[in-house]
Fold this protein.
Amino acid sequence: MATAIEVQTKAFNSLREYMSFLDERGLLHRIDVPVSKDEEVGAICREVFDRDGPALLFNKVGNHTTPLFVGGVATRERYSLALGVEPTIQAIAAKWASAYKNPIKYQEAARNEAPCKEVVIDNPDLYADPFPVPKWHHLDAGPELATLHGVITMDPETGWINVGNYRGQIFDSKRFGCYLVSIPVRHAKLHWDKWKAMGKPMPVCVVLGMDPYLHLTSVSAVPYGIDEYDIAGGLRGSATQVVKAELSDLLVPAQAEIVIEGYMPTDKLWPEEAPFGEFPGYMGQMVKNCHYIEVHKVTHRKTPIFQGTYEGRPPSESTTVRSMGRSAALWEHLRRAGLAGIKDVSVTPAGCAGFHANVSITKSYHGHVRDVMFHVWGHPNLFCKHVTVVDDDIDPWNPFMVEWAIATRVQACRDVITLGGAKSIDVDPSQVGSRRGESDLLGIDATKPLEEYARDGSEYPAGTDPLPETMEKVRKRWKEYGFKD
Ligand SMILES: Cc1cc2nc3c(=O)[nH]c(=O)nc-3n(C[C@H](O)[C@H](O)[C@H](O)COP(=O)(O)O)c2cc1C
């Protein structure tokens, strides 16, 4: 039954504006007692994510005075509040589609109008404030500084700026990692390759505490060459205010809380990084030869807020942001490919927002389902190894209905295809360590087998649900029947 839905129209220019908005609605919980930054913060996040709980502001993390914010967009409700749409996938997808169609060019602010420059630290220490960095899981290799943030890099040939989200382990007081998964290839890695070819280190800024739109775009497989600042502008409905970095020509969000500036060496890599708790819900592997950042300067607001998130099995903030953003990106990919009849796309949260895609279609030609599967597998930045295609009467976000379609429309020998030799991500524990990065593919055609029935000279049986007009009548009279809602 329908419940009252708040659709707000406010646009947020900074993280703190968004936090105040959550606070006014009782969606922000402050933890004022001291908590240990190692494991305790992570365990609290695990419990809160499992309870679908509020966003969290930790005010006393270890010896730090800088507060730590987690979970701003951890639920679909908060994700849609940030976007100013109803908490339905359709509304979220429509908002993304409109931002892709109508990006808003970023605007450059003067240095003295940029709060992120209020304080400048020339000799930063990653173990001191403003960096209350947890060791999130008990088996982590160390404190993980960058978990939900923006890594800003530039294509030296075109000047195109990318905002990505790649984790970073603190190695020492001035250096931290930037883990760029190799398959699918990350945009910052493509930039790094170009800087390397020029024989120069790559300028980089890592931004902590951005407005929600920048966060959502940074993790959302925005296609190469498309400016994430402009897509964020499209989501916000107004231009992203940026300001020139102190040490390079990079542009950083002017309203950010904290900006770390430095360089990524292109002639050397850090020998060992990780393991860390990963989004599939298992510990990852140690990474040899990891990209890393040498920190030269930090700028921040007068009273900065540090932002991060706990990575782990679904449900989590990471799953929510990736599931929504990747579903929108995959839908955009299918739209750009010109595929007919796509009704809805779900890169499912329980599939760790990466491994499973469900796509509903209005099937209209022989081979339609196969076309959809191959285009999903062909997305250059996604790795959905299992694809289920359903008819347009099935909601791909509803696992119950998808399973019903599989139960009643699938014959394995006819409708299931498997293929080997595909790309994957190296934290998929279904694959043994030495074979990580490659995967098998599974496609399930869970649409009604209409062609098979036609060849058989019969029709697929009609469903048992009442006629839509009868249902409408019944819903209208619901209270008359004595039901409350
Ligand atoms: C919480 C979180 C952590 C992530 N960590 C990493 C990471 O360590 N390395 C990585 O390559 N991608 C990571 N990702 C995925 C990328 O941020 C995402 O695929 C993004 O679209 C990449 O940006 P790009 O397409 O501009 O390269 C993470 C995503 C989230 C939500």
Remarks:
- The domain at 338-455 is CATH 3.40.1670.10 (UbiD C-terminal domain-like).
- Residues 317-336 form the longest helix (20 residues).
- The chain has a mean pLDDT of 95.
- The pocket of flavin mononucleotide is lined by residues 147-148, 162, 164-167, 179-181, 186-188, 219-221, 309, 311, 318, 321-322, 381 (CB under 6 Å).
